[in-house]
Amino acid sequence: MPDLLLDVQGLETTFKTPDGVIHAVNGVSFNLKEGETLGVVGESGCGKSVTMMSALKLIPMPPGKITAGKAFFFGKDLLQMSSEEIRHVRGAQISMVFQDPMTSLNPVLTIGRQLEEPLMLHVGMSKKQAQERAAELLSMVGIPNAKDRLGDYPHQYSGGMRQRVMIAMALSCSPQILIADEPTTALDVTIQAQITDLVRRLRDELGMAIIWITHDLGVVAGLAQRVIVMYGGFIIEESPVKELYANPEHPYTIGLLGSLPRVDEQQHQKLFSIEGQPPVLYQKPQTCPFAPRCKWAKERCWKENPMLLPVGPEHRAACWVDTKTGSYRA
């Protein structure tokens, strides 16, 4: 059985705002095995990005605060590390690719300088070695004339090329884990497919584990082995990817999958939409956070927040109701 690379337990994160304290992440637990690709899905504001940034202590503190939890990486708790200790983990062992490459790259430094810096800092390369490695990395992510492009600035690259640079930067120190936070959102569909194929190829070549954060269930289907679905700062379903698509058990997951257009249907059907609004989490929910939007909601759903319950092999869902029968789970 592959070793656990990352083991997050009971993670809770809040943000202080003028209107009150937002409970953004509420007791999230998950793990990541060597070489595995884990998909993290859910609508905007459900806590996907904050969960991963909290595990790496990347949230701004204040207003953010990690109030509970542990995040073990090779047996060491990332949340207990000093700023200096975790700086040597971030970039070198766990790398993150962010949503918008234009705001992630420094506009006044050349691409070469930004690629070379982590190589000199984390790997101890000389300036000349770092330059050669930077050119190799740009070639690896499919940028032509890589050596000549090192002297260019971010504005001289297209959106898709900037995202490739961000991936090259994330891979520069050969990390064990790559966290990709909606890396294709700002790109057109053709470039999205290229970036996804690139990450899949690099994962197979380099053997790294990936956490792919997205609201696009279509991308996850072809990339991940396992999926966690988030809602209201909670994990509400966890399953192997094929099982999730074949047998979604949580009403929210059923709604998400129902909103996807399908190409295999013989008859045209209207896309499903989930009525209502996501919760505003000024209080940590004591009841099921999805109950106000759920057509299966029963009395217990308004009284008690369900835990993740086993519903199949390696498949868990946080729901009191069996959606196939409409009755309480046994």
What's a quick, concise take on this entry?
The chain has 330 residues and is of the alpha/beta class. It has eleven helices and twelve strands.
Structure classification: alpha/beta
Biggest pleated-sheet summary: 8 strands, mixed
Q: What is the average per-residue confidence, as pLDDT, rounded to a whole number?
A: 87
Per DSSP, the total helix count is: 11
Low-confidence blocks of residues: none
Element-level helix/strand string:
EEEHEEHEHHHHHEHEHEEHHEE
Number of strands: 12
Q: How much helical structure, as a percent, in the residues? A: 25-40%
Radius of gyration: 21 Å
**N- to C-terminal distance:** 31 Å
List the strand order in the largest sheet: 6-7-8-3-9-10-12-11
**Into which percentage range does the β-strand content fall?**
15-25%
**Globular, elongated, flat, extended or rod-shaped: what is the shape?**
globular
